[in-house]
Each structure stands twice: as C-alpha cells, then as structure tokens.
Amino acid sequence: MLTASEAAVFRSRPPWWGGDLQTLRNSLMPAPKPIAGERLYLAMADGSGDRLWALYNSGADPGKPLVILIHGLAGCEESSYIIAAAGFFQSHDYATLRLNLRGAGPSRASCGLQSHAGRSQDLRDAILALPPAAIAHGVVVVGFSLAGNMSLKFAAEYGPDLPVWALATVSAPIDLAVTSANMLRPRNHLYNRRLLRDFSRECLAAGAAVSPAERVAIKAAGNFAELDDSFVAPRNGYRDAHDYWESCQALGFMSQIELPTLMLHAHDDPIVPIGPCLRYPWRGNSHLFPEFSRSGGHVGFHGVGNRLWHLDRVLYFLTQML
C-alpha cells in the first residue's frame, strides 16, 4: 500500500457527493479545453492494415518517461478525463501520448477491427511503433476503466519485454463477468443505455468492417452481455461471452505482473463493483499496489480545490517508483 498521509485520502468536491455524481460529472460538465499535439499513426502488426491514431506531446523534462493515457469503453482522445490527465502530466514536465484504441474516435477511420477488453497486443504494437526518441526514457501506462483491464493483461504478457517502467489503472474491471452482471441491475439502466448506444455507434461507424449478420447483432443487443455474446466473442474467436470474459479478464493475469503497478478504485463505483478487488490476494504479488478510496465513483475522483485525486496518486506513485 502507498502512504496513508492526508494527501492519500480522497475528499469529494462539493456538490459532487456520492459515486453517481462523481461519475456523471465527467459528462455533465464541459470538457477541459482541447490540447493540441503531434498526430501519430501507429500501425498494428497483425496484418489487418489497422492504424491507431494518437496525440503526442513532448515533455519539458526529457529525462522523464512517456506517459501513455488510454481511454475506456466508448471513449477517445477527446474524453474529458483523458484531456485532463494529459494537461496534468504535461504540467509536471512529462511527455504524454493520448492513444485511441481500435475503432475509437479518430481511429475508426483507419481501423476495420474493434477494440475489446483483451486486445493487449494492440498496446504492445503501438509502443513498438512509436518513434525511438519518444520512448528513449521509458514508458508509463495509465489505463482507465476497460483499458485498465487490457493494460493489466498487457503488463503480464509483454511488460518485461518492453521499456515499460510502471503501470497505473483507474477504475479497472478486473472481473468482467461481475461487471457485466452489475450493468444489468435496474439502477444502472441509464449507464447501460448510454454506454451501449455510444459503443454500438462506434462499432457501426464508417470504416468498421462488419458483416450484415454482425450489424444485426449489434443493433439487436439490449445490454453488454448480449453484445459480448453475439458480436464481441464470436468476432474475436471466443465461444461465447463467458469464454471471452474468462479469457480476457485481468484476474487471470495479475499474479504474473512484474512491473510496479498502482490500482486505484472507489468503494462507491456504480459501474465496476469493488468486490473483486477486495477479494483479490494482494499479498501474493509485491509488484501490485492497490489503493481504494471510500468515494470517487467511476473514473471520477473530483476532489476539493479542483484536484483530481487519481492523478495526484499516480504522480506520487511515479515519484516513489521511478
């Protein structure tokens, strides 16, 4: 565990009390001012011809590692939490890369395929496709929400073979089956409807290579369990949704991680239940540093004084580990 100092305790910024308001603030309030960057096109090595779009900003301190920021489901480089994170780390002299996963945001136009919770090889390919100067002083990966799950899988599979110094996740769904079941609860109907709408649009947007049958399946899905079962799983070689969840969820990979890894989560996260995190045997891997706040919602953590608690914690983690 990290320090239990006052700085480590999350305090909600009024009036954003409770998990739902903390979560919704990202969409209810205007996004931060866009930050211009150098556009990079990162080719995937699977023969698909897909290229991920990314925005790169050099850092004022060339000796610090590159911070790669990866959005969650239905997000992209324009997501408010990604813009805020880029500005935060740039203000602390880090270079940043805002990575759009397959089919997300501007990457849709150059990707026929679609991202999912287990596409860890895409992150490996993206890092290998970066200019050598960008990664000359190492890489730190920060994965938000579903990208957190993918990043943990990546760390276990490819971390030791790449210049990755550390990893941090924010509100990662390490148990995909539990998270999917939670999204089916009546109280999460609005979250499910909005996320499903946005992700389905992404899957069907111009540039996506979907068959007529897949198009029907995407449009017919009423929740993510159905979408995973009828589209995501069969498209990616899994028997069904349960096979996809079991094969890709971070729970099956975390014991293999050998990189310093900070995992942030809130007890009141309405989208990703904290239960799997509380049950995980953390003492079995000294490379993992879990830190759970009493509140903060899902990728929220809007603290007093306009502070974003999760970014402060990642920065503190880096100063201790690097």
CATH fold topology: Rossmann fold
- Give a short account of the largest sheet: 8 strands, mixed
Order of helices and strands: HEEEHEHEHEHHHHHEHEH
Q: How many H/I helical runs?
A: 11
Provide the structure class. alpha/beta
Placed side by side, the strands forming the largest sheet appear as 1-2-4-3-5-6-7-8
What is the mean pLDDT?
96
Tell me the quaternary state.
Answer: single chain
C-alpha-based Rg, rounded? 18 Å
Shape call: globular
Ranges where pLDDT stays below 50 over 5 or more residues in a row are none
Task: Explain what you see.
With 322 residues, this protein is an alpha/beta fold. The chain has a single domain, classed as Alpha/Beta hydrolase fold, catalytic domain (Rossmann fold, 3-Layer(aba) Sandwich), CATH 3.40.50. Helices cover 36% and strands 15% of the residues. An eight-stranded mixed beta sheet has the order 1-2-4-3-5-6-7-8, sandwiched between helices. Helix 10 links the parallel strand 7 and strand 8. Helix 3 crosses helix 4 (146-158), helix 7 packs antiparallel against helix 8 (224-235) and helix 8 (224-235) crosses helix 9. It is globular, with a radius of gyration of 18 Å.
